[in-house]
Amino acid sequence: MQMNKVMKSFIIALPVVTMMACSSGPSEEELAAERNRMAQEQAEAEREAQRAEEQRVKAEKAQRMKRQEEMVAQEKEALQNEQTVYFDFDRSSIKPEFQTLLDKHAEFLVKNPDQDVVIQGHTDSRGTPEYNIALGERRAQSVETYLLNAGVSSSQISVVSYGEEKPAVMGSTEYAFAQNRRGVVVYQ
């Protein structure tokens, strides 16, 4: 009877022991391989997140640059609508009412050192061609000097005199003469 109990216990224990032996856990190599796989997946996910962040930063930078270029273009367009300084007869000194206009141009040129201007000097038709070329030159240089004193780089400015060659208004009226005595800031 006791032998019977031992036999029954042995018959019950044998499958349990066999199952326990078969259900052993993963080996150390398998665990290491799984850890490596998970580390590689995590590293790839981090690289992907970093690439996405770099793309986002590049897109924001491009957008900021585009907005800035648009603002520069708008400001430049506004300045091109106010680019003429008028002078008194036979004078090359800048009148006080044009200083604000030139200050705007100077501020824009200082903020945008890649922008260049040509200052054109003009005169009315009175006087000899030689005298008018010289007077147009003095007027253009007067505008140039004002801009240089306001902080604009000399490399951004060039000067040309047309004298009486390119009138803004044709005719021999005082109005035509006044419109032709000018210095014009032309953006390149």
From TrEMBL:
Main localization, broad class: membrane
OmpA-like domain ranges (all copies): 74-188
This protein's GO CC annotations: cell outer membrane
Region (Disordered): 28-61
Keyword list, A-Z: Cell cycle, Cell division, Cell outer membrane, Lipoprotein, Membrane, Palmitate, Signal
Locations listed in the record: Cell outer membrane
InterPro entries hit by this protein: Bact_OuterMem_StrucFunc, OMP_bac, OmpA-like, OMPA-like_CS, OmpA-like_sf, Pal, Pal_lipo_C
Compositionally biased region (Basic and acidic residues): 32-61
Topology in membrane: Lipid-anchor
Gene Ontology BP, a term: cell division
Top-level division of the source organism's lineage: Bacteria
Oligomeric and partner information: The Tol-Pal system is composed of five core proteins: the inner membrane proteins TolA, TolQ and TolR, the periplasmic protein TolB and the outer membrane protein Pal. They form a network linking the inner and outer membranes and the peptidoglycan layer.
NCBIfam families according to UniProt: Pal_lipo (TIGR02802)
PANTHER family xrefs: LIPOPROTEIN YIAD-RELATED, STATOR ELEMENT OF FLAGELLAR MOTOR COMPLEX
Role, per record: Part of the Tol-Pal system, which plays a role in outer membrane invagination during cell division and is important for maintaining outer membrane integrity.
Record-stated family: Belongs to the Pal lipoprotein family.
Name of protein: Peptidoglycan-associated lipoprotein
Organism: Alteromonas halophila
Gene name as annotated: pal
